[in-house]
Amino acid sequence: MRHILALCVSAFLVVALAGCAAQQPKMVETASGKPEAFFEGKTPDEVASLLAASCIQRGWMVDSSSGGNVKCSRPASGGQDFAVQMMYGAGAQATQYLNFFAIKAGDGTKAYAQSMVEVIKQFGGRQAVQLDTNEAFNSMMEWLYSVGGK
User: Domains (ranges, CATH) in the chain?
Assistant: First the structure.
């Protein structure tokens, strides 16, 4: 029993200390402070279609897409899933969500991105956490740029 406890504590410390490493800098500062990109000559619906197609190409499921808004999801994997299991128990499940919002701006469309993880705890409770690290910001910016944003 002591060995199992020591193993669990060691695994938790590894995960906790890995999260304390220095953050990478943001690749760009945006006006809103959130991931955003401009799509010249595109309507919000056209940008939403590009983003939904990109979700599918990357293995995400499109949960909804209407009015310039796109919501994609996938089960958490790798380190996220391991951390959730360590914190909430073996029965906990995590899902990562990406929300894109496309809004008409001048002669084009401004798209904003948000990333979050929702945890369904072993006995049914839910908890959502927004991913607002610089790494998540940079990942979302790269995603927006990859579909034509500037």
Answer: 35-146 (3.30.530)
Q: Please count the CA atoms within 13 angstroms of the CA of 136 that sit on its side-chain side.
A: 17
* H or E stretch at 41: none
Long-range contacts of 10-14 (CB under 8 A, 24+ apart): 11/86, 12/86
- When pLDDT is averaged across residues 67-95 and rounded to a whole number, the result is 76
Using CA atoms of 53, 56, 60, 64 in order, give the dihedral in degrees to the nearest 10.
50
What pTM does this model have?
0.75
Residue scoring higher pLDDT (41 or 91)? 41
Task: Check residue 33 and give left, alpha or beta (phi > 0: left; psi -120 to 50: alpha).
Answer: left
Beta pairing partners, 119: 94, 127
